[in-house]
Specification:
Elements: H1 3-12, H2 19-30, H3 37-44, H4 53-65, E1 70-75, E2 78-82, E3 88-93, E4 99-103, E5 123-126, H5 129-132
Parallel strand pairs: 3-5
Antiparallel strand pairs: 1-2, 3-4
């Protein structure tokens, strides 16, 4: 995603535009690996000495709270992030720990009449096709 588009998106979602926020979101958009905060920090810390782990964590939380990123918790305590906000599921491989997106074309459920559903997390686990071969 181009920097100009990220600036507009951050602004449209009520977030102050900072270089650090742009770098975090750009990395998140360009790396479909569902990175955690540490991975993002290690990737962008060379951009500016003012980037800290806390900066990355705080920006990810704000992006999640403002609807720009999903927080994924499919592999234990490790929080991963996803800029893909379209309805989709995640598959985590028990061998390589990679997370793969998959399309969800039809989501039907029962038993929640009267509930206010705010999140929908769909994930499967097993062995990915790369590890099977």
């Amino acid at each position: 995603m181009e920097t100009k588009a990220i600036v507009k998106l951050l602004h449209d979602h009520g977030l102050r535009v900072t270089p650090q926020r742009i770098w975090v979101y750009k990395y998140l958009c360009e790396n479909k690996t569902h990175p955690d905060a540490e991975e993002i920090y290690n990737a962008i810390r060379h951009c500016d000495n003012s980037v800290t782990r806390a900066t990355v964590h705080n920006n990810l939380k704000k992006m999640k709270d403002h609807g720009l990123a999903l927080e994924i918790t499919v592999d234990g305590d490790r929080l991963r992030y996803d800029a893909n906000l379209d309805m989709h599921g995640h598959f985590i491989c028990s061998h390589c720990s990679r997370i793969f997106d998959f399309d969800v074309t039809q989501l039907e459920f029962t038993g929640l009449k009267g509930f206010n559903t705010q999140t929908k997390d769909i994930f499967f686990g097993g062995v990915c096709k790369n590890c099977i071969n």
